[in-house]
From TrEMBL, chain A:
Chief localisation class: mitochondrion
Places the protein is found: Mitochondrion
Protein name per Swiss-Prot or TrEMBL: Large ribosomal subunit protein uL13m
Family listed: Belongs to the universal ribosomal protein uL13 family.
Pfam families for this protein: Ribosomal_L13 (PF00572)
HAMAP family: Ribosomal_uL13
Upper taxonomic lineage: Eukaryota, Metazoa, Chordata, Craniata, Vertebrata
Alphabetic keyword roster: Mitochondrion, Ribonucleoprotein, Ribosomal protein
Gene transcribed to yield this protein: MRPL13
Automatic annotation (TrEMBL), chain B:
Gene symbol of the encoding locus: MRPS18A
Protein name: Large ribosomal subunit protein mL66
Protein location: Mitochondrion
Matches recorded under InterPro entries: Ribosomal_bS18 (IPR001648), Ribosomal_bS18_sf (IPR036870)
A single GO cellular-component term on record: mitochondrial inner membrane
Family of this protein: Belongs to the bacterial ribosomal protein bS18 family. Mitochondrion-specific ribosomal protein mL66 subfamily.
Entry keywords, A to Z: Mitochondrion, Ribonucleoprotein, Ribosomal protein, Transit peptide
Organism (species): Esox lucius
Organismal lineage: Eukaryota, Metazoa, Chordata, Craniata, Vertebrata
Pfam families for this protein: Ribosomal_S18 (PF01084)
GO molecular function terms listed in the Swiss-Prot or TrEMBL record: small ribosomal subunit rRNA binding; structural constituent of ribosome
A Gene Ontology BP annotation from the UniProt entry: mitochondrial translation
Amino acid sequence: MKQWATFARSWYLIDARMQPPGKIATMCAIRLQGKHKPIYHAISDVGDHVVVINTRHIAFSGNKWEQKVYSSHNQYPGGFKQVTAAQLHLKDPKAIMKLAVYGMLPRNLHRRTMMQRLHLFPEDDLPEDILQNLTEELPQPREVPRRLDQYTPEEQEAFPRLWTPPGDYRVK
Amino acid sequence: MAARCVLGSIWTSISGVRCMANSSNISPFQRITISPQLLFFGSVQNRGIRHVVEKKEGKTTVVSEKLAYLKCWFIIAHCFMIEGLTEDVPVGPQPPNPTAQCPIYRWNLQNKYNYTDVLLLSQFIRSDGGMLPRRVTGLCAQEHRKITICVQMAHRAGLLPKHKPPLPEGHIPKKPKPQLNRYLTRWSIDSVKPIYRTGLKWCKKRISVGHPALKDNVQYGKKILYLKH
């Protein structure tokens, strides 16, 4: 029974809301290869399934939405296409995550099977059979900062005022 | 005006929180819980905030008869009486370094704030999101620039949703803009062009993240601050 438990293929869930796709992709790639298990070996198929939700709400740091370019060539003359991350995301919200994970997996024939074990969903809703299979949810890599309206008024008041406005200045 | 207490106490919560924050990545400001007892300690140079209040007084028949021979603007000026009321602000905790000029140096926050510390940044902005002038806030030049940069990054990250400029009435947005989440954006969104040719490894065109003005910030944790991704 213990042997069944060690060699079983588990299903992991990752929420990609407000997370950088690269960090999510590293977590996915490690678990798809099976490198998080002490019984890992490249030949033996020890990878797990990974389900990523909310890929539409991914957050890029810096100006990557405008600057990062995804290029492809369909081998016809004049078939070189370059698309910014923003345009690609609007066209297909799962594409950025998929390309990120694909680039992090080892370049061998196992890569395609590992990509088949990766399940991406743009929003929260999952089909029933996947929901039943899930075993563990992984913590988010990036700590999401709180917005100003998410602080309670007591917390906002408890924060000390750093400066006092001079005499006749009209505040805001 | 507020009464001045003689007690001067050092605000130990900052140093206490710093020890706590060393073990985690949460910025210290999100952990501050000031007990209500502290509000009575310390003497802060406290002046009430001056609010401009407009009071409308109804036109009395007596007044209008008396002033009937005067010009119109005089009557209008009498109807709307403008008063300045000074509100009493409750005494807050004392800064640990009260002799400094800049408020950030007074509270020893030189390299400790980031774009996520919205409670700090919201004290230096107007209601439509713009920065308050330096001569009013009393910030020194470098800290004013750093705070401006952090405020811009916070706006682009969507952390200040209520501080948007007022749209003119009847303004219909042409197309709904794509809501893309971002953080640590250095440049303005429309000003940046895509990098079509990134170059080889030795001459790669990197994407800039964060801002070099904030490079001296204290890093809680082993990770180094990467400005070029």
